[in-house]
Amino acid sequence: MSRVLTRQALTRAVLARQHLLARTDLTPAAMVEHLVGLQAQAVPDPPYLGLWSRLEGFRPDALTELLEQRAVVRVGLQRGTIHLVTADNCLTLRPLLQPVLDRALRGSYGKQLTGVDLAAVAARGRELVEQEPRTFQQLGALLGPEFPAGPPAALAQAVRALLPLVQVPPRGIWGRSGPAAHTTAEHWLGRPLDPSPSLERMVLRYLAAFGPATGADVQQWSGLTGLGPVLKRLAPELEVFEDEQGRVLYDLPDAPRPDERTPVPVRLLAPFDNLLLSHADRSRVVPEEYRRRVMTVNGLVPGTLLVDGRVAGVWRLSGGTLTIRPFAPLRRADLTGAQAEGARLLDFTGGERLVVEQPE
């Protein structure tokens, strides 16, 4: 019979792998590698804040330098959303996740591109973005006259789906940012895509950062479907557990699984933090009663407050004031922890004022 992992045990296991039980002295590049990327569709703050919450002594210029040196890039990957990943991971993950981009193209713009030669659009798009980085608006305007059967916006999105486009700096740079201009990963990095990437390796890396997990969790994180056979092939080298609902959980044998009574510090997570978005069952970190206050109908995910490893509020930084809004009154020790984390965040961002709005 498989060992049962309680919700509390699952919470602590994933927090340990996310380095949210204790900050670490890993380098920023090593952390980006370990997390298999940081969600980065909002600019520029979330990846910087995601590293701040996990790394001891992290400062913004450390990530800025990696972006400018092309050691990390911003590219559409898991679930078709923009992630910040290492250059090596970009070249390996992008071909593995091509089906996700293909599905998105069929669903959103496919009907507008009926009769259009998509291979020709991709080839011409590659020429244009490798001449110089282009925004999607610029790319659509250039492609439109050559492919009049397709709307310019749809043509640009076809290029996004069919080619491994990276967003070039200053897009995503702390304190600067800029328009979302794109070129190909091969052109930007001077190397080809991985010709034989491994799905098995990708799944093992997911478990190292987000496990223990079900097959549905892996699919939710990646956006891929049909990963059951991959997990079956890996099963002999994995530990197998069950959650309290009887679902099968897979894990690496030597991965950390702290005792469910392990103390958990208060943490502030970045908007769109991967911890909140990488499981089909998010209850290990997002209580059901708060889910709609965090996973909003318009797709925005605010910065969140973690208490005992689970979302207990949200935060916002505006005009130099950091406002933390717990969903329920905090105990004295948790309030002290929230204030300490808030002070750290103000130091990191250069903010000046902290407000904790305890509910009645």
What does this protein structure show overall?
The longest helix is centred in the C-terminal third of the chain and has 18 residues, at 332-349. The chain has three domains: 3-9 and 198-251, Arc Repressor Mutant, subunit A (Orthogonal Bundle); 18-189, no CATH class; 267-356, no CATH class. A hairpin with a 2-residue loop joins β10 and β11 (310-318). 41% of the residues are buried. It has helices at 7-17, 28-34, 45-52, 60-68, 87-96, 98-108, 118-131, 136-143, 152-162, 185-189, 199-210, 215-222, 228-234, 274-277, 291-294, 332-349; strands spanning 3-4, 38-39, 72-76, 82-86, 165-167, 182-184, 239-242, 248-251, 267-269, 303-307, 310-318, 321-326, 353-356. The model has no long low-confidence stretch (mean pLDDT 96). The chain has a five-stranded antiparallel β-sheet with strand order 2-4-3-5-6. A five-stranded mixed β-sheet has the order 9-10-11-12-13, covered by helices on one side. The chain is α+β, with helices and mostly antiparallel strands and 360 residues long. α7 crosses α9 (152-162) and α8 (136-143) packs across α9 (152-162). It contains 16 helices and 13 strands. Helix content is 41%, strand content 15%. It is globular, with a radius of gyration of 21 Å.
Short description:
Helices cover 41% and strands 15% of the residues. The protein has helices at 7-17, 28-34, 45-52, 60-68, 87-96, 98-108, 118-131, 136-143, 152-162, 185-189, 199-210, 215-222, 228-234, 274-277, 291-294, 332-349; strands at residues 3-4, 38-39, 72-76, 82-86, 165-167, 182-184, 239-242, 248-251, 267-269, 303-307, 310-318, 321-326, 353-356.
